Amino acid sequence: MALQVGDKIPHFSAIDTNGNVFDNDSIVGKKSHVIYFYPKDDTRVCTEQACSFRDQYEDFKALGAEVIGVSSDSVKSHQKFVKQYRLPFILLSDSDKKLRRLFGVPNDLLGLIPGRVTYVVDKNGLIQLVFNSMSGKIHIKNALEILKRM
């Protein structure tokens, strides 16, 4: 079942870009966050989306929010992606697709490509936005609008 606005974000952990275990307990209750699921590192739309988050990362930080990207790519792939595009935020490796299932992130309409869904979570761990669109850049605009209203 897909997570929806008003749901409490479930507890999860995954390996981050540095090979460390990231546990969402480290931010729930402390700060708002944006978790965005994307299909694949270093593809056109995913790179545009990541670079848009990068370019507006200071806006997210100014609103007290952390940005977390999630895909099924390996830690090694994430490391290359982060270095090549100077991404300042956390990327999590979901190689077993456990997080996708936990959040209920669907595949695209044909079922071939992993979905692109953004969740804005308030400081208390309640989901304030679920945005599902294969268009990458619009996720950033929608997430910032919600954060500004929180």
UniProtKB/TrEMBL annotation:
Q: Which GO terms describe its molecular function?
A: thioredoxin-dependent peroxiredoxin activity
Q: Name the reaction it catalyses.
A: a hydroperoxide + [thioredoxin]-dithiol = an alcohol + [thioredoxin]-disulfide + H2O
> Record's Pfam families?
AhpC-TSA (PF00578)
**Catalytic EC class:** oxidoreductase
Q: Which Gene3D superfamilies match?
A: Glutaredoxin (3.40.30.10)
Q: Which UniProt keywords apply?
A: Antioxidant, Disulfide bond, Oxidoreductase, Peroxidase, Redox-active center
Q: State the family it belongs to.
A: Belongs to the peroxiredoxin family. BCP/PrxQ subfamily.
Question: Main role?
Answer: Thiol-specific peroxidase that catalyzes the reduction of hydrogen peroxide and organic hydroperoxides to water and alcohols, respectively. Plays a role in cell protection against oxidative stress by detoxifying peroxides and as sensor of hydrogen peroxide-mediated signaling events.
- UniProt name for this protein: thioredoxin-dependent peroxiredoxin
Please tell me the species this chain comes from. Answer: Flavobacterium buctense
